C-alpha cells in the first residue's frame, strides 16, 4: 500500500495463485478466505481478494484485459442464492473474463516439463515440450505451443479447430474405446468431488504461536514449565 506495508490478504492472494498443487485445492483455499463462518460466500470479501489477485496480470501489462472492476465481479455469482463451496467450484469451472487467466497459469505450470515424443508439423522440431495442439480436421497435423501461440501454421488453415493436449497418450487405445462403447468407462469425469458445505475447523495454534513477543530464552522456559502441584 502507499504506506509501505504489505497486507496479509495480498500475501495470501499471491501464494494461492502462484503455488503448486491442484487447482481445485487452490480454489477451495480461496473460498475459505472469502466465506463466512457458515461456509457461505461473502461478496465483499471476494471483491477484496479479487482486487489483490488481479494485481498479478496488471504487473505484466495485462491490466486492460484483466484489470479489476467492481461491476464485472457482480455477475459472477447469483445474488439471491447462498453460494457454497461446491457452487463456487462449479461456477469457476468456466471462469468469468476477469479470472480466465487463473486456470491458464495453473495449466502452464503443470505442463512445463511435459514431453510429447512427436514432431511439430510447422517447425519440424523433433519432440515437443509443454502444450501440444492437434488439428481436428487434418489427420496427423499438430503444432508445438510456440508455433501455435505465434500463429505459425504455414499453408494450414487457421480456421481449423485445434485441440489442446497437456499429456501424451498412445493412439488407438482399443481397450478404452471398447469400454466406452459397452458403457464400462465413463466418458466424462466429474469436474470435482462433492465437498461438505460446512467449513473445516481451523487448527488451534495457541500452544505453538506465542500470543506476545518472547524477549529471551529464560522467559520461554519459565512460561512453558508446568506449575508445581501442592
TrEMBL record:
InterPro entries on file: EF-hand-dom_pair (IPR011992), EF-hand_dom_typ2 (IPR015154), KCMF1/Dystrophin (IPR050774), Znf_ZZ (IPR000433), Znf_ZZ_sf (IPR043145)
Alphabetized Pfam families for the sequence: EF-hand_3, ZZ
GO biological process, one term: synaptic signaling
Secretion signal, residue range per the UniProt entry: 1-21
Domain of life assignment: Eukaryota
GO molecular function list: zinc ion binding
GO CC term, one of those recorded: plasma membrane
Keyword Glycosyltransferase: no
Entry annotated with the keyword rRNA-binding: no
Keywords carried by this UniProt record: Metal-binding, Signal, Zinc, Zinc-finger
Parts of the chain that traverse the membrane: none
Domain ZZ-type: start-end pairs: 115-170
Name recorded for this polypeptide: Dystrobrevin, beta a
